[in-house]
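step 4 of 6: structure.
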Amino acid sequence: MTNIAISAKGLIVKKGKQCILNELDFVVKSGTVTGLIGPSGSGKTTLMRSIIGVQKCKGELSVLGNPAGHKSLRKSIGYVTQSPAVYPDLTVQQNLRYFATLVRSDKMDVKRVIDTVRLTDQRNQVAGSLSGGQMARVSLAVALLGRPELLVLDEPTVGLDPVLRNELWDLFAELASEGRTLLISSHVMDEAARCENLLLLRDGKLLWKDSLKKLLAATKKNDVGGAFVTMINAAEKAEKMGKK
Amino acid sequence: MKYHIKATFGTTLRILRQLSHDHRTVAMIFLVPIILLSLLRWMYDDNQMIFNLIAPALLGIFPFVIMFIITSITTLRERTGGTMERLMALPIGRLDLVLGYMLAFGLLAIIQAVLASAVLLWGLGLEIEGPAWFLLTMAVADALLGTALGVFVSAFARTEFQAVQFMPALIFPQFLLCGLILPLNQLPDILEATAYFLPLTYAVEALQTVVSNTEVTGEAWRDLFVVLCFAVGAVLLGALTLRRRTK
Protein backbone atom coordinates (compact mmCIF):
# COMPACT_ATOMS: atom_id res chain seq x y z
CA MET A 1 0.00 0.00 0.00
CA THR A 2 1.53 3.27 -1.09
CA ASN A 3 1.05 6.32 1.09
CA ILE A 4 1.03 8.78 -1.80
CA ALA A 5 -2.45 9.27 -3.31
CA ILE A 6 -1.65 11.90 -5.92
CA SER A 7 1.70 12.97 -7.29
CA ALA A 8 2.37 15.53 -10.00
CA LYS A 9 5.62 16.41 -11.75
CA GLY A 10 5.75 19.22 -14.28
CA LEU A 11 1.96 19.17 -14.71
CA ILE A 12 0.90 21.55 -17.49
CA VAL A 13 -2.55 22.39 -18.86
CA LYS A 14 -2.87 24.80 -21.76
CA LYS A 15 -6.11 26.08 -23.25
CA GLY A 16 -5.25 27.74 -26.53
CA LYS A 17 -2.27 29.97 -25.83
CA GLN A 18 -3.22 30.47 -22.20
CA CYS A 19 -1.34 28.43 -19.64
CA ILE A 20 -3.87 27.37 -16.97
CA LEU A 21 -1.55 25.17 -14.92
CA ASN A 22 2.16 25.96 -15.11
CA GLU A 23 4.51 23.06 -14.27
CA LEU A 24 3.04 21.97 -10.96
CA ASP A 25 4.97 19.61 -8.67
CA PHE A 26 3.23 18.31 -5.58
CA VAL A 27 2.17 15.21 -3.67
CA VAL A 28 -0.98 14.46 -1.71
CA LYS A 29 -0.58 11.86 1.03
CA SER A 30 -3.15 9.11 1.52
CA GLY A 31 -5.58 9.47 4.38
CA THR A 32 -5.28 13.24 4.62
CA VAL A 33 -7.51 16.21 3.99
CA THR A 34 -5.79 18.59 1.61
CA GLY A 35 -7.22 22.01 0.94
CA LEU A 36 -6.85 23.54 -2.49
CA ILE A 37 -7.20 27.27 -2.08
CA GLY A 38 -6.66 30.23 -4.34
CA PRO A 39 -8.47 33.16 -5.92
CA SER A 40 -11.11 32.41 -8.58
CA GLY A 41 -9.57 31.81 -11.97
CA SER A 42 -6.38 30.47 -10.44
CA GLY A 43 -6.85 26.99 -11.96
CA LYS A 44 -8.38 25.06 -9.03
CA THR A 45 -11.14 23.44 -11.06
CA THR A 46 -8.78 22.63 -13.95
CA LEU A 47 -6.40 20.91 -11.53
CA MET A 48 -9.25 18.88 -10.06
CA ARG A 49 -10.53 17.93 -13.51
CA SER A 50 -7.02 16.77 -14.45
CA ILE A 51 -6.88 14.51 -11.40
CA ILE A 52 -10.33 13.07 -12.19
CA GLY A 53 -9.14 12.36 -15.71
CA VAL A 54 -11.59 14.49 -17.70
CA GLN A 55 -9.03 17.14 -18.58
CA LYS A 56 -6.17 16.61 -21.02
CA CYS A 57 -2.83 17.53 -19.48
CA LYS A 58 0.91 17.25 -20.03
CA GLY A 59 3.59 16.16 -17.60
CA GLU A 60 3.38 13.42 -15.00
CA LEU A 61 0.24 12.99 -12.95
CA SER A 62 -0.22 9.80 -11.01
CA VAL A 63 -3.40 9.07 -9.07
CA LEU A 64 -3.64 6.09 -6.68
CA GLY A 65 -0.68 4.53 -8.45
CA ASN A 66 -2.09 4.90 -11.96
CA PRO A 67 -1.74 7.62 -14.57
CA ALA A 68 -4.65 10.10 -14.30
CA GLY A 69 -7.58 9.12 -16.49
CA HIS A 70 -6.79 5.39 -16.21
CA LYS A 71 -9.86 3.20 -16.59
CA SER A 72 -9.41 1.52 -13.20
CA LEU A 73 -9.61 4.90 -11.45
CA ARG A 74 -13.23 5.53 -12.44
CA LYS A 75 -14.36 3.19 -9.64
CA SER A 76 -12.11 4.65 -6.97
CA ILE A 77 -12.66 8.41 -7.28
CA GLY A 78 -15.66 10.34 -6.04
CA TYR A 79 -16.04 13.72 -7.71
CA VAL A 80 -18.19 16.71 -6.85
CA THR A 81 -18.33 19.48 -9.43
CA GLN A 82 -18.86 23.11 -8.50
CA SER A 83 -22.44 23.23 -9.76
CA PRO A 84 -24.42 20.20 -8.57
CA ALA A 85 -24.31 17.61 -11.34
CA VAL A 86 -27.53 15.74 -10.61
CA TYR A 87 -30.77 15.33 -12.53
CA PRO A 88 -33.15 18.09 -11.40
CA ASP A 89 -36.19 16.16 -12.70
CA LEU A 90 -35.50 13.06 -10.57
CA THR A 91 -36.05 12.63 -6.84
CA VAL A 92 -33.07 12.49 -4.49
CA GLN A 93 -33.44 8.73 -4.18
CA GLN A 94 -33.89 8.17 -7.93
CA ASN A 95 -30.74 10.18 -8.63
CA LEU A 96 -28.72 8.15 -6.16
CA ARG A 97 -30.12 4.80 -7.31
CA TYR A 98 -29.07 5.55 -10.87
CA PHE A 99 -25.52 6.50 -9.91
CA ALA A 100 -25.38 3.54 -7.50
CA THR A 101 -26.06 1.20 -10.45
CA LEU A 102 -23.17 2.78 -12.33
CA VAL A 103 -20.66 2.47 -9.49
CA ARG A 104 -21.88 -1.10 -8.69
CA SER A 105 -23.21 -0.24 -5.29
CA ASP A 106 -26.60 -1.12 -3.75
CA LYS A 107 -29.77 0.19 -2.08
CA MET A 108 -28.23 -0.01 1.39
CA ASP A 109 -25.44 2.24 0.21
CA VAL A 110 -27.98 4.70 -1.20
CA LYS A 111 -29.71 4.83 2.17
CA ARG A 112 -26.37 5.28 3.93
CA VAL A 113 -25.25 8.26 1.81
CA ILE A 114 -28.67 9.96 2.05
CA ASP A 115 -28.45 9.67 5.84
CA THR A 116 -24.87 10.94 5.78
CA VAL A 117 -25.77 14.18 4.01
CA ARG A 118 -28.97 14.46 6.10
CA LEU A 119 -31.51 14.39 3.30
CA THR A 120 -33.54 11.46 4.64
CA ASP A 121 -36.70 13.57 4.92
CA GLN A 122 -36.25 14.98 1.41
CA ARG A 123 -35.42 11.68 -0.29
CA ASN A 124 -38.64 11.54 -2.29
CA GLN A 125 -38.50 15.17 -3.33
CA VAL A 126 -37.54 16.13 -6.88
CA ALA A 127 -33.95 17.46 -6.80
CA GLY A 128 -34.89 20.58 -8.78
CA SER A 129 -37.30 21.65 -6.02
CA LEU A 130 -34.62 21.56 -3.32
CA SER A 131 -32.69 24.57 -2.07
CA GLY A 132 -29.21 25.23 -3.47
CA GLY A 133 -27.54 23.85 -0.38
CA GLN A 134 -29.67 20.70 -0.38
CA MET A 135 -28.96 20.12 -4.08
CA ALA A 136 -25.22 20.47 -3.39
CA ARG A 137 -25.60 17.77 -0.76
CA VAL A 138 -27.29 15.43 -3.26
CA SER A 139 -24.26 15.93 -5.48
CA LEU A 140 -21.96 15.17 -2.54
CA ALA A 141 -23.97 12.05 -1.71
CA VAL A 142 -23.40 10.77 -5.27
CA ALA A 143 -19.64 11.13 -4.77
CA LEU A 144 -19.81 9.13 -1.52
CA LEU A 145 -21.50 6.13 -3.20
CA GLY A 146 -19.38 2.99 -3.21
CA ARG A 147 -16.96 4.41 -0.63
CA PRO A 148 -14.30 5.67 -3.08
CA GLU A 149 -10.67 5.79 -1.99
CA LEU A 150 -10.16 9.35 -3.21
CA LEU A 151 -12.66 12.20 -2.99
CA VAL A 152 -12.15 15.29 -5.09
CA LEU A 153 -14.58 17.98 -3.99
CA ASP A 154 -14.85 21.30 -5.80
CA GLU A 155 -16.31 23.83 -3.34
CA PRO A 156 -18.64 21.29 -1.68
CA THR A 157 -19.87 23.63 1.05
CA VAL A 158 -20.94 26.63 -1.05
CA GLY A 159 -24.35 27.90 0.00
CA LEU A 160 -24.50 25.87 3.21
CA ASP A 161 -25.21 27.33 6.62
CA PRO A 162 -22.40 27.33 9.21
CA VAL A 163 -23.88 24.44 11.22
CA LEU A 164 -24.15 22.14 8.23
CA ARG A 165 -20.77 23.29 6.96
CA ASN A 166 -19.25 22.29 10.27
CA GLU A 167 -20.98 18.91 10.17
CA LEU A 168 -19.64 18.22 6.71
CA TRP A 169 -16.10 19.10 7.72
CA ASP A 170 -16.46 16.67 10.62
CA LEU A 171 -17.54 14.09 8.06
CA PHE A 172 -14.52 14.84 5.88
CA ALA A 173 -12.20 14.38 8.87
CA GLU A 174 -13.93 11.10 9.69
CA LEU A 175 -13.51 9.85 6.11
CA ALA A 176 -9.81 10.73 6.23
CA SER A 177 -9.42 8.83 9.51
CA GLU A 178 -10.83 5.76 7.72
CA GLY A 179 -7.88 6.05 5.33
CA ARG A 180 -9.58 7.91 2.49
CA THR A 181 -7.90 10.84 0.81
CA LEU A 182 -9.73 14.12 0.28
CA LEU A 183 -8.80 17.04 -1.92
CA ILE A 184 -11.18 19.90 -1.26
CA SER A 185 -11.20 23.29 -2.91
CA SER A 186 -12.53 26.26 -1.04
CA HIS A 187 -12.29 29.97 -0.87
CA VAL A 188 -13.52 30.17 2.71
CA MET A 189 -10.49 30.66 4.91
CA ASP A 190 -11.80 29.17 8.12
CA GLU A 191 -12.44 25.98 6.14
CA ALA A 192 -8.84 25.90 4.97
CA ALA A 193 -7.92 25.93 8.65
CA ARG A 194 -9.48 22.47 8.94
CA CYS A 195 -7.12 20.96 6.36
CA GLU A 196 -3.89 19.24 7.37
CA ASN A 197 -2.16 20.27 4.20
CA LEU A 198 -2.68 23.17 1.85
CA LEU A 199 -2.09 23.75 -1.82
CA LEU A 200 -2.18 27.46 -2.51
CA LEU A 201 -2.70 28.13 -6.19
CA ARG A 202 -2.40 31.48 -7.93
CA ASP A 203 -2.30 32.07 -11.71
CA GLY A 204 -1.59 28.40 -12.37
CA LYS A 205 1.40 28.27 -10.02
CA LEU A 206 1.66 26.76 -6.55
CA LEU A 207 2.65 29.27 -3.88
CA TRP A 208 2.46 26.76 -1.04
CA LYS A 209 2.36 22.96 -0.80
CA ASP A 210 2.93 21.94 2.77
CA SER A 211 1.17 21.71 6.11
CA LEU A 212 -0.99 24.46 7.56
CA LYS A 213 1.24 24.75 10.63
CA LYS A 214 4.32 25.45 8.55
CA LEU A 215 2.45 28.05 6.49
CA LEU A 216 1.48 29.96 9.62
CA ALA A 217 5.02 29.72 10.96
CA ALA A 218 6.55 30.85 7.67
CA THR A 219 4.29 33.87 7.32
CA LYS A 220 4.23 34.70 11.06
CA LYS A 221 0.44 34.97 10.96
CA ASN A 222 -2.08 33.26 13.20
CA ASP A 223 -4.90 32.83 10.67
CA VAL A 224 -5.03 31.31 7.21
CA GLY A 225 -6.55 34.42 5.65
CA GLY A 226 -3.64 36.58 6.78
CA ALA A 227 -1.10 34.00 5.66
CA PHE A 228 -2.84 33.73 2.30
CA VAL A 229 -2.69 37.48 1.67
CA THR A 230 0.97 37.60 2.75
CA MET A 231 1.88 34.82 0.32
CA ILE A 232 0.05 36.45 -2.57
CA ASN A 233 1.52 39.89 -1.89
CA ALA A 234 5.01 38.39 -1.73
CA ALA A 235 4.41 36.62 -5.06
CA GLU A 236 3.19 39.84 -6.67
CA LYS A 237 6.21 41.75 -5.39
CA ALA A 238 8.56 39.12 -6.75
CA GLU A 239 6.84 39.34 -10.14
CA LYS A 240 7.19 43.12 -10.29
CA MET A 241 10.85 42.85 -9.37
CA GLY A 242 11.30 40.29 -12.10
CA LYS A 243 9.73 42.61 -14.70
CA LYS A 244 11.97 45.53 -13.71
CA MET B 1 -20.72 -7.84 -19.73
CA LYS B 2 -23.25 -8.06 -16.91
CA TYR B 3 -22.22 -4.59 -15.80
CA HIS B 4 -22.71 -3.15 -19.28
CA ILE B 5 -26.25 -4.53 -19.44
CA LYS B 6 -27.03 -3.13 -15.99
CA ALA B 7 -25.59 0.27 -16.90
CA THR B 8 -27.58 0.36 -20.16
CA PHE B 9 -30.89 -0.61 -18.56
CA GLY B 10 -30.17 1.64 -15.59
CA THR B 11 -29.80 4.57 -17.99
CA THR B 12 -33.00 3.63 -19.82
CA LEU B 13 -34.89 3.47 -16.55
CA ARG B 14 -33.43 6.80 -15.43
CA ILE B 15 -34.55 8.58 -18.63
CA LEU B 16 -38.04 7.08 -18.43
CA ARG B 17 -38.26 8.19 -14.78
CA GLN B 18 -37.20 11.69 -15.77
CA LEU B 19 -39.93 11.77 -18.40
CA SER B 20 -42.50 10.37 -15.98
CA HIS B 21 -42.14 13.61 -14.01
CA ASP B 22 -42.98 15.55 -17.17
CA HIS B 23 -46.54 14.59 -18.11
CA ARG B 24 -46.99 17.28 -20.72
CA THR B 25 -44.01 16.13 -22.79
CA VAL B 26 -45.19 12.54 -22.72
CA ALA B 27 -48.71 13.56 -23.73
CA MET B 28 -47.38 15.61 -26.61
CA ILE B 29 -45.13 12.81 -27.89
CA PHE B 30 -48.18 10.56 -28.21
CA LEU B 31 -50.86 13.04 -29.25
CA VAL B 32 -49.17 15.43 -31.68
CA PRO B 33 -48.71 12.89 -34.52
CA ILE B 34 -52.33 11.74 -34.12
CA ILE B 35 -53.65 15.29 -34.27
CA LEU B 36 -51.55 16.11 -37.32
CA LEU B 37 -52.69 12.97 -39.13
CA SER B 38 -56.32 13.82 -38.29
CA LEU B 39 -55.78 17.28 -39.73
CA LEU B 40 -54.45 15.70 -42.90
CA ARG B 41 -57.53 13.45 -43.13
CA TRP B 42 -59.76 16.51 -42.84
CA MET B 43 -57.79 18.35 -45.54
CA TYR B 44 -58.10 15.47 -47.98
CA ASP B 45 -61.61 14.46 -46.96
CA ASP B 46 -62.68 14.26 -50.60
CA ASN B 47 -59.49 12.77 -51.95
CA GLN B 48 -58.73 9.29 -50.56
CA MET B 49 -56.03 8.69 -53.18
CA ILE B 50 -53.81 11.56 -52.11
CA PHE B 51 -54.44 10.78 -48.43
CA ASN B 52 -53.30 7.20 -49.07
CA LEU B 53 -50.13 8.55 -50.63
CA ILE B 54 -49.17 11.15 -48.04
CA ALA B 55 -50.38 9.73 -44.73
CA PRO B 56 -48.05 6.67 -44.58
CA ALA B 57 -45.06 8.84 -45.46
CA LEU B 58 -45.94 11.24 -42.64
CA LEU B 59 -46.25 8.27 -40.28
CA GLY B 60 -42.53 7.82 -40.84
CA ILE B 61 -41.60 11.47 -40.77
CA PHE B 62 -43.38 12.57 -37.55
CA PRO B 63 -41.70 10.09 -35.18
CA PHE B 64 -38.39 10.76 -36.91
CA VAL B 65 -38.60 14.52 -36.37
CA ILE B 66 -40.08 14.44 -32.85
CA MET B 67 -37.57 11.90 -31.56
CA PHE B 68 -34.73 13.83 -33.18
CA ILE B 69 -35.64 17.04 -31.37
CA ILE B 70 -36.33 15.44 -27.99
CA THR B 71 -33.17 13.36 -27.98
CA SER B 72 -30.88 16.12 -29.16
CA ILE B 73 -32.13 18.46 -26.45
CA THR B 74 -32.06 15.82 -23.68
CA THR B 75 -28.50 14.87 -24.57
CA LEU B 76 -27.42 18.48 -24.84
CA ARG B 77 -28.88 19.21 -21.42
CA GLU B 78 -26.86 16.35 -20.02
CA ARG B 79 -23.73 17.82 -21.60
CA THR B 80 -24.34 21.37 -20.36
CA GLY B 81 -25.76 20.41 -16.94
CA GLY B 82 -22.56 18.74 -15.80
CA THR B 83 -24.05 15.26 -15.45
CA MET B 84 -22.27 14.12 -18.63
CA GLU B 85 -18.91 15.07 -17.12
CA ARG B 86 -19.81 13.15 -13.99
CA LEU B 87 -20.86 10.10 -16.04
CA MET B 88 -17.63 10.23 -18.04
CA ALA B 89 -15.67 10.03 -14.78
CA LEU B 90 -17.61 6.87 -13.80
CA PRO B 91 -17.13 3.30 -15.07
CA ILE B 92 -20.08 3.50 -17.53
CA GLY B 93 -19.14 2.76 -21.17
CA ARG B 94 -19.94 5.37 -23.79
CA LEU B 95 -21.88 2.87 -25.86
CA ASP B 96 -23.83 1.78 -22.73
CA LEU B 97 -25.02 5.34 -22.35
CA VAL B 98 -26.06 5.81 -25.99
CA LEU B 99 -27.79 2.42 -26.05
CA GLY B 100 -29.60 3.37 -22.83
CA TYR B 101 -30.89 6.45 -24.62
CA MET B 102 -31.87 4.40 -27.68
CA LEU B 103 -33.84 1.93 -25.57
CA ALA B 104 -35.69 4.62 -23.61
CA PHE B 105 -36.65 6.74 -26.59
CA GLY B 106 -37.13 3.63 -28.73
CA LEU B 107 -39.77 2.44 -26.25
CA LEU B 108 -41.56 5.79 -26.48
CA ALA B 109 -41.24 5.62 -30.26
CA ILE B 110 -42.86 2.19 -30.36
CA ILE B 111 -45.85 3.40 -28.33
CA GLN B 112 -46.08 6.53 -30.45
CA ALA B 113 -45.92 4.54 -33.70
CA VAL B 114 -48.47 1.94 -32.53
CA LEU B 115 -50.94 4.64 -31.50
CA ALA B 116 -50.51 6.66 -34.69
CA SER B 117 -50.72 3.59 -36.95
CA ALA B 118 -53.81 2.29 -35.18
CA VAL B 119 -55.58 5.63 -35.47
CA LEU B 120 -54.52 5.93 -39.09
CA LEU B 121 -55.70 2.46 -40.09
CA TRP B 122 -58.87 2.11 -38.05
CA GLY B 123 -59.85 5.65 -37.15
CA LEU B 124 -58.96 7.65 -40.23
CA GLY B 125 -59.60 4.98 -42.83
CA LEU B 126 -56.20 4.65 -44.46
CA GLU B 127 -56.39 1.95 -47.13
CA ILE B 128 -53.25 -0.09 -47.57
CA GLU B 129 -52.68 -3.27 -49.60
CA GLY B 130 -49.67 -4.45 -47.62
CA PRO B 131 -49.43 -5.72 -44.03
CA ALA B 132 -49.98 -3.30 -41.15
CA TRP B 133 -47.04 -4.74 -39.18
CA PHE B 134 -44.60 -3.55 -41.81
CA LEU B 135 -46.05 -0.05 -41.64
CA LEU B 136 -45.51 -0.16 -37.89
CA THR B 137 -41.99 -1.61 -38.12
CA MET B 138 -40.97 1.11 -40.52
CA ALA B 139 -42.40 3.86 -38.29
CA VAL B 140 -40.45 2.51 -35.30
CA ALA B 141 -37.26 2.22 -37.39
CA ASP B 142 -37.64 5.88 -38.40
CA ALA B 143 -38.12 6.94 -34.79
CA LEU B 144 -34.98 5.02 -33.79
CA LEU B 145 -33.10 6.74 -36.59
CA GLY B 146 -34.28 10.13 -35.28
CA THR B 147 -33.14 9.17 -31.76
CA ALA B 148 -29.70 8.08 -32.96
CA LEU B 149 -29.20 11.19 -35.08
CA GLY B 150 -30.34 13.35 -32.15
CA VAL B 151 -27.63 11.95 -29.85
CA PHE B 152 -25.06 12.39 -32.59
CA VAL B 153 -25.81 16.00 -33.59
CA SER B 154 -26.12 17.21 -29.99
CA ALA B 155 -22.33 16.94 -29.87
CA PHE B 156 -22.10 19.79 -32.36
CA ALA B 157 -24.41 22.15 -30.50
CA ARG B 158 -23.22 24.37 -27.68
CA THR B 159 -26.65 25.76 -26.76
CA GLU B 160 -30.25 24.62 -26.94
CA PHE B 161 -30.94 27.30 -29.56
CA GLN B 162 -28.39 25.70 -31.83
CA ALA B 163 -29.73 22.22 -31.16
CA VAL B 164 -33.27 23.23 -32.10
CA GLN B 165 -32.03 24.68 -35.37
CA PHE B 166 -30.44 21.41 -36.41
CA MET B 167 -34.00 20.35 -37.13
CA PRO B 168 -34.53 22.77 -40.06
CA ALA B 169 -30.86 22.45 -41.04
CA LEU B 170 -30.67 18.66 -41.21
CA ILE B 171 -34.25 17.40 -41.40
CA PHE B 172 -35.93 19.86 -43.79
CA PRO B 173 -33.60 19.14 -46.73
CA GLN B 174 -34.31 15.44 -46.28
CA PHE B 175 -38.02 16.16 -46.15
CA LEU B 176 -37.87 18.22 -49.37
CA LEU B 177 -35.86 15.59 -51.23
CA CYS B 178 -37.46 12.38 -49.89
CA GLY B 179 -39.84 11.97 -52.83
CA LEU B 180 -42.99 13.07 -51.07
CA ILE B 181 -43.13 16.59 -52.53
CA LEU B 182 -41.77 15.66 -55.93
CA PRO B 183 -41.13 12.09 -57.16
CA LEU B 184 -37.41 11.36 -57.22
CA ASN B 185 -37.25 10.84 -60.98
CA GLN B 186 -38.55 14.37 -61.55
CA LEU B 187 -35.76 15.97 -59.50
CA PRO B 188 -32.67 17.44 -61.21
CA ASP B 189 -30.03 14.71 -61.57
CA ILE B 190 -27.70 15.95 -58.85
CA LEU B 191 -30.56 16.29 -56.35
CA GLU B 192 -31.88 12.84 -57.24
CA ALA B 193 -28.41 11.38 -56.61
CA THR B 194 -28.19 13.31 -53.34
CA ALA B 195 -31.57 11.99 -52.22
CA TYR B 196 -30.19 8.44 -52.30
CA PHE B 197 -27.62 9.37 -49.66
CA LEU B 198 -30.34 10.55 -47.25
CA PRO B 199 -32.07 8.08 -44.91
CA LEU B 200 -35.51 9.66 -45.06
CA THR B 201 -35.75 8.88 -48.79
CA TYR B 202 -35.66 5.15 -47.99
CA ALA B 203 -38.09 5.52 -45.11
CA VAL B 204 -40.70 7.25 -47.25
CA GLU B 205 -40.19 4.88 -50.19
CA ALA B 206 -40.78 1.84 -47.97
CA LEU B 207 -43.92 3.33 -46.42
CA GLN B 208 -45.34 4.17 -49.85
CA THR B 209 -44.73 0.68 -51.25
CA VAL B 210 -46.76 -0.84 -48.40
CA VAL B 211 -49.76 1.08 -49.66
CA SER B 212 -49.68 -0.37 -53.18
CA ASN B 213 -48.16 -3.86 -52.74
CA THR B 214 -49.86 -6.77 -51.01
CA GLU B 215 -46.54 -8.46 -50.22
CA VAL B 216 -43.50 -6.85 -48.55
CA THR B 217 -41.29 -6.39 -51.62
CA GLY B 218 -37.54 -6.91 -51.76
CA GLU B 219 -37.24 -3.19 -52.26
CA ALA B 220 -39.14 -2.49 -49.02
CA TRP B 221 -36.87 -4.87 -47.07
CA ARG B 222 -33.85 -3.17 -48.56
CA ASP B 223 -35.25 0.24 -47.49
CA LEU B 224 -35.78 -0.99 -43.93
CA PHE B 225 -32.24 -2.34 -43.89
CA VAL B 226 -30.80 0.97 -45.13
CA VAL B 227 -32.69 2.97 -42.46
CA LEU B 228 -31.45 0.63 -39.72
CA CYS B 229 -27.87 0.89 -41.05
CA PHE B 230 -28.07 4.68 -40.83
CA ALA B 231 -29.37 4.33 -37.26
CA VAL B 232 -26.54 1.97 -36.22
CA GLY B 233 -24.01 4.28 -37.85
CA ALA B 234 -25.41 7.26 -35.94
CA VAL B 235 -25.32 5.31 -32.64
CA LEU B 236 -21.64 4.48 -33.13
CA LEU B 237 -20.81 8.04 -34.16
CA GLY B 238 -22.86 9.31 -31.20
CA ALA B 239 -20.82 7.15 -28.79
CA LEU B 240 -17.61 8.46 -30.36
CA THR B 241 -18.66 12.08 -29.85
CA LEU B 242 -18.85 11.53 -26.07
CA ARG B 243 -15.40 12.59 -24.97
CA ARG B 244 -13.99 11.41 -21.66
CA ARG B 245 -11.32 14.09 -21.73
CA THR B 246 -11.59 17.64 -22.94
CA LYS B 247 -8.82 19.96 -24.05
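step 5 of 6: annotate
 - Chain B is about 80% helix and 0% strand.
 - Chain B has a mean pLDDT of 89.
step 6 of 6: archive
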